[in-house]
User: What shape does this take?
Amino acid sequence: MTPAASIRWIALATTSAFVLPALAQERIYRCGNEYTNNAVVAKSRGCKVMEGGNITIVQGTAPQAGAAPRTSASPAAPRTAPRNDSAEQRSRDSDARQILESELRKAEDRLSQSQKAYANGQPEKEGIESRNHQRYLDRVAELKAAVTRAESDVSGLRRELGRMGAVPPAGPGAAAPGTPTAPESAAK
Assistant: This one.
């Protein structure tokens, strides 16, 4: 075989490798949101021929019968499991309550420390802050954010303890408005 013949043979083989798969693909018709390769069905439904490029269709899973579709606007209803009143469950509840009370005490300590450092928005200036007022304002904003975060933590832990049926212990500054504290009731 001559070199020219072998080049023609390679060119023919390469060309046929690319052309034959394109010829093997059937016409695809689009009928709205559905696709078909059946010309009779496509003609009866008035479908249009898809041109230019390959089409890949992935079949979706069918929804389960009786399952209601969930939307993001309506959260799933909480599952109500049968209540277990065993001693083991009471022990778990007691442990959870103790953990929450411990966390509440820590959060109240953080709150009191944050409030002390914040000093009602007038903390003492430190070091370079006497010359750089913006640095002082930044630190005051951080202290205020820490107080707000600590207050949020305390209120969240109190809510959680309230859900458990436990009366949240009152910590520093936690008395309800109008409720006399121990020193006030002693003074009366």
